[in-house]
Amino acid sequence: MEEFGSERRRGPRRPRRGPPRQAPPENLEVGEELTLRIFGVSRRGDGMGKAKGYTIFVPNTKAGDVVKVRVTRVWARYATAEVVGSE
Question: Where are the domains of the chain?
């Protein structure tokens, strides 16, 4: 006896909705030092900068700051860093 729905039918493929996928970010290593311009503040109050395709969260900074940071942790699309100097 055959179960209902045991064969999966596939219809024509629909075009993907939404924005096009972005290329993966470049490699960002823990301990790497960068100079960032802080462009905004997160909900938690950390400053946010961008580098190498990552959004980098930096505590104790505000929008408009230009700081030298050391990367402390890296995830798939974002990272955290600490301030090591200012420009």
Answer: 33-86
Q: Which architecture characterizes domain 33-86 according to CATH?
A: Beta Barrel (2.40)
Residue located via tokens 């490699």 = 27
Decide: 83 and 69 in contact? Cβ < 8 Å.
yes
Could you tell me whether strands 54-58 and 78-86 are parallel, antiparallel, or unpaired per DSSP bridges?
parallel
Give 3-31 as a 3 state SS string: CCCCCCCCCCCCCCCCCCCCCCCCCCCCC
pTM, to two decimals: 0.73
Consecutive 10-residue runs of the chain (87 residues): their mean pLDDT? 62 77 82 96 96 95 96 95 90
